[in-house]
Amino acid sequence: MTVRKAWIVASVAVGGALSFVMLLVVGVYLVAGNVAGGVGGGTVALAKGAVPAAYSALVQKWGNLCPAINPALLAAQLYQESGFNPNAKSPAKAEGIAQFIPGTWATHGIDGDGDGDRDVWDPNDAIPSAASYDCELASYVKDAPGDPTHNMLAAYNAGAYAVLKYGGVPPYSETQNYVKTITTLQASFAAPVGRVDPSEQAAGAINYAQEKLGTPYLWGGTGTAEQQGRFDCSGLTQAAYASVGIELPRVANDQYNAGPHPSRAELLPGDLVFFSDDLTNSRAIRHVGIYVGGGYMIDAPRTGAVIRFDPIDTPDYFGATRVTEDGAKALPTAV
């Protein structure tokens, strides 16, 4: 469909919010697909708060260890592996924030902080080791045709031999999905260098949320019949995007990673907006709403309240996510 460029210009008062949102629902479709953007080339910086502050400097430093990786890609791997949990342990005995299995750690773990030991449970060792391992794999497959980063990720998943054998990413669905997942997910951890594309599904998500205005809040609510169609904050945003075919995770801090992060000045209707008491750590996000324009969102705020319009410009405003279908699909089911 050819979509002409348009800008939504509107002023909002709380009393006129319903008609305002109806204009926005139309307006989102008019602007969708017409704002150039995405993560650009050059040095990749991390999006504000996307990586917990305790690890941000490590990821930024070691993510530039070799040309095949960047800080956002390294962050995406750590999030995919452990959700930045330094105490994570999998049924397969993978350990720590980077989920090394003991045999791999014994060979590839490094003393990242120079304190004389190599501790898989210490992010100061494990994060540098993850970057170092990525770069080792990249060196093994440097002569394979194709994108060096894709080949490195394929080697991480399927082994360097498979990449060399097939001359690039091998034809294994698991490996191809892994490469797509990590390269897609990295957009959620990179600070955008330009405006990012709006979602064509945004208007439908707003419309869904608008129809729920006045519904009482229910902690843990996902809108089921047993819950009398009631929601909590992330239950509402999850259901709103499910209504247009995008499956978001259940909780707000994982929904933050469903796409790139526009600045406050670049918000468009349909963006998810997030709130936290710790503005340095996306894992501490505690509230989410759907932006509708004019500085307002639709949200399910708290017990005793109803789904309503609220202003977003509060001291606990954390940031926003422009949900993408690929971004949502890339998110791990549990971290």
What structural keywords apply?
12 helices, disordered N terminus, single chain, 335 residues, five-stranded antiparallel beta sheet, alpha+beta, 37% helix
Report a brief summary of the structure.
The protein is an alpha+beta fold and 335 residues long. The protein has helices at 17-31, 53-62, 71-82, 102-108, 123-140, 148-158, 160-166, 173-185, 202-211, 233-242, 252-255, 325-330, and strands at 272-276, 285-293, 296-299, 308-311, 317-321.
Give structural notes.
The protein has a five-stranded antiparallel sheet with strand order 4-3-2-1-5. α6 packs across α7 and α9 (202-211) packs across α10. Residues 1-42 have low confidence and may be disordered. 37% of the residues lie in helices and 8% in strands. It is elongated, with a radius of gyration of 21 Å. The protein is of the alpha+beta class. The protein has helices at 17-31, 53-62, 71-82, 102-108, 123-140, 148-158, 160-166, 173-185, 202-211, 233-242, 252-255, 325-330, and strands at 272-276, 285-293, 296-299, 308-311, 317-321.
